Amino acid sequence: MPETTRESLTAGGWKTLSFEPFRDAVTIHWIQPFETDQPGVALLKYEAGAAVPRHRHMGLETIVVLEGTQSDEAGDYGPGSLVVNREGSEHSVWSDTGCVVLIQWDRPVKILQEELA
């Protein structure tokens, strides 16, 4: 199992990890899958132009941008940015350039608006 310490991830160690499909043009590597009364911790890798539709946070979500730029209605977040989305908050997320983020969710989000086909 690859090392998933903070130091190795911020130094690009995530590049050796395997990712699986999560949403259209977004892949995931689970560090700690959701369990009963346990938050989920993962790496999300967005391809350039990827987006997650508007959603509501059902618990606290914390993100650290490791590479690239992640954006939402409040702004753009580059490497090293810490983004905290409180329970009940809503937004859409996208990455024009592609990005990799370390994310922790207390609970899964509720998608409010799916992408139109």
List the helices and strands and how they pair.
Elements: H1 6-10, E1 20-23, E2 26-32, E3 40-46, E4 50-56, E5 61-68, E6 70-72, E7 75-77, E8 82-85, E9 90-95, E10 99-105, E11 110-111
Antiparallel strand pairs: 1-2, 2-3, 3-10, 4-9, 4-11, 5-8, 5-10, 6-7
In words, what does this structure look like?
- This is Allophanate hydrolase.
- InterPro entries: ChrR-like_cupin_dom (IPR025979), RmlC-like_jellyroll (IPR014710), RmlC_Cupin_sf (IPR011051).
- GO terms for molecular function: hydrolase activity.
- It comes from Pararhizobium antarcticum.
- With about 120 residues, the chain is mostly beta strands.
- It has one domain (about 25-110): Sandwich (Jelly Rolls), CATH 2.60.120.10.
- Helix content is about 5%, strand content about 50%.
- It has one helix at about 5-10, and strands spanning about 20-25, 25-30, 40-45, 50-55, 60-70, 70, 75, 80-85, 90-95, 100-105, 110.
- The strands form three sheets. Strands 1-2-3-10-5-8 form a six-stranded antiparallel β-sheet, with no helix packed on it. A three-stranded antiparallel β-sheet has the order 9-4-11, with no helix packed on it. A two-stranded antiparallel sheet has the order 6-7.
- Strand 1 and strand 2 form a beta hairpin.
- The longest helix has 5 residues, at about 5-10.
- It is globular.
